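Holo model, adenosine-5'-diphosphate. Inputs:
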Amino acid sequence: MPLLTVQNLSKAYGPHRVVDVPAFALEAGAQVALRGESGSGKTTFLHLIAGILAPDAGRIELAGREVAALGEAARDRLRAETIGYIFQTFNLLQGHTVLENVELGMAFGRGVDRAHAEALLKRVGLGDKLGHYPRQLSTGQQQRVAVARALANRPKLVLADEPTGNLDTRNSREALALIREVCRENGAALLLVSHDEGVLGQFEQVQDFAALNQASVP
Ligand code: ADP
Ligand code: MG
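Output:
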């Protein structure tokens, strides 16, 4: 059974249907990139899967459970425990240290596990930056905090939205390799969206989002 199954998922903003995905599935442990132009609905699609946005219609099955069939609290818990999210703009909490940023993610999920948070931060090369604030870090280092945070709850699925869009080419290549390695090491599948051929070219499995998404985006 796939880790993630999406059926007839749709979302409109006012009169504009932005997402209309009849079917999508992702196997456990897979690493798949979705290629799509800017404005084609990629972020909306990831937000729907992550529960950041509610769909107008459709089914999302995650780890064998139909998400909409759960009560709100159970749904939030399933998502917190199953999904890690790497945002394009990182979304770090600026008033909190590197370690706190990772631990706060855990507080909503399986509970704070300082040893695991420190191990992840060490793994992404930030073992000596635990007490730093995000603004004291380079963009590439902030992105690595976001990577550690995404893995904090031992998710089965990591969603990554143009995760290297704010990095230069060399940092981008290294960051992407790191994301792929830590997902593999931690047994998480990776679903990444991007419009960048340099990023997409590093994936063995690339799907065209336009072929999945039947919405005629304005
Ligand atoms: P992508 O990530 O592929 O660039 P998005 O999912 O961000 O695409 O956006 C798809 C379309 O939906 C765009 O036309 C965008 O302007 C529109 N859109 C995104 N978010 C909103 C919103 N909150 N309200 C209205 N329109 C939105
Ligand atoms: Mg986007």
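Strands lie at 4-13, 16-26, 31-35, 57-62, 65-66, 83-86, 157-161, 189-194, 205-208. The first helix runs from residue 42 to 50.
Archived with the compound record.
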